Amino acid sequence: METPGTDSSVPPPHVLIFPFPIQGHMNCMLYLSEMLVYSGFHITLLLTDHNLSLLGSSSNNNNHSHPSSLPDIPRLRVLSIPDCLPADHPRNLDGWVELLDSLKTNACPLYKSLLLDLCKMDVSADGFPAVTCVIADGILPFMIDASEQVGVPAIAFRTASASSVWIYYCIPQLIQSGEVPFRDGADWDEPINSIPGMESFLRRRDLPSPCRLAKNPEDKVLQLLATCTAHSERTRGLILNTLETLESISLEQIRAHMPTTYAIGPLHEMVRAYRSQNNVCAHDKSVSLWHQDCTCMTWLDQQPRRSVIYVSYGSIAVMTQESLIEFWIALVNSGEHFLWVVRSDLLRGEEWTNIRDSLSLEVRKGTEERGCIVSWVPQVEVLAHPAVGCFLTHSGWNSTLESIVGGVPMLCWPFAVDQQINSRLVGEVWRIGLDMKDVCDRTTIEKMVRAAMNGETASEIRKNAHELAKMVNNSVVEGGSSFENFQRLIEYIKSLCKRNVQ
Ligand code: UDX
């Protein structure tokens, strides 16, 4: 990996990284930060005060501190700004649009003044040089604009799949063709024709959830996603946590409009490969907003090979009690062993433990015998455990990539935003899992769990998942596409930093 240039007239690259402040965006942007540190860069990871406090630390502006739950990486510091929302605001799927609004209206001016300060200092008290480049979450286009206004070149990073980014880019065509908003009585299994490259597999129900929820073309969320994606065309570049062979069609389409697009994923595997090849002491810490319950690893150790179905709905999904009960009964009735992540905020205003007390004795007994329910797990480790036979997932992009890397087949129950298209890719394009979207009844879930764990279908998706894992794992080592794209990205960032001082 590169070391910083020795030309003393050029400042050392110092990149400020600003993820949208929810778990699935913070994870992979931390991995990106770590990879940039290994390339000799200084990194300032900008979080919100709220998330920093959940990580076990607090800071204000330049008085940075290192949260105890984050890996201790040299040349990486953490700063924070307020998200300007009340402490008890739901920062999940129910509240993400308000979070975005607040960042735009209230936090953006604070960000701008912080960035101005960070650019002025040649070297700050903690030895960090001036910020020379920003990589901001692509769903924060106003932060990208603010960076450029301060004079710092800014690149967009999207944490979702390239396929979902491509669909968001095509929202104007979907509207123009009349395919979105859905007309009353529309057949959700009908093919969608206005997304170039996806005609052979994309159905109405596979479009990201804002397309099905929109009642009119001016729908706020629909327009928000279309606008931030179109904005990336005007930024210095676009980084995607994906890889060439996995999403070649979407990447080709995106590059026709945004030529400086870098596919450098899966980032968590890039980091693991770098650490193992360079004997970097591996640490098990990660940016986790929930407390990890590692007792599940001991439980997994006691289970036979490929006997466990791992179940998780990611970090922002909010479920109804009725859906949770259907899953619970199905998991028990399937007869399989299950490791189930039930976050403390998964149910709207209800404790899941209250539901347990309302279940039949038989279901409670089955849970005790075969289940392990925890509030948060070290997911990458869980997916690497030999006892795990399948992942019942909400098809968030990080979870999808983590499962692919682990060679674990998926049973997909997509919930929102990009998850509907991710699950279609899993079930129909890569054929490494089964897509269970838009059903939530105990009989179907039980049937799908059995099919994904045992029998002919299970063997087929398992075989495909193993083959795909090999291909993906090859992409992150020297000569692999993500490795080489990452080298190109490093050179590109350095060139932006140089141009900025000339
Ligand atoms: C949503 C989107 O669906 C996703 O595609 C987008 O890019 C980010 O926002 P989210 O619900 O956060 O995603 O899911 P996902 O992208 O899968 O990210 C969840 C992360 O939390 C994963 O990295 C996963 O490893 C981690 N996780 C989850 C844990 O570490 N422990 C758990 O118990 C559950």
UniProtKB/TrEMBL annotation:
UniProt-listed SUPFAM superfamilies: UDP-Glycosyltransferase/glycogen phosphorylase
Keyword Acetylation: no
Coiled-coil stretches: none
TM regions (residue ranges): none
EC number annotated for this UniProt entry: 2.4.1.-
Entry GO MF terms: quercetin 3-O-glucosyltransferase activity; quercetin 7-O-glucosyltransferase activity
The entry's keywords: Glycosyltransferase, Transferase
Family of the protein in this entry: Belongs to the UDP-glycosyltransferase family.
PANTHER family for the chain: GLUCOSYL/GLUCURONOSYL TRANSFERASES, GLYCOSYLTRANSFERASE
Protein name: Glycosyltransferase
Species in which this protein is naturally found: Rhynchospora breviuscula
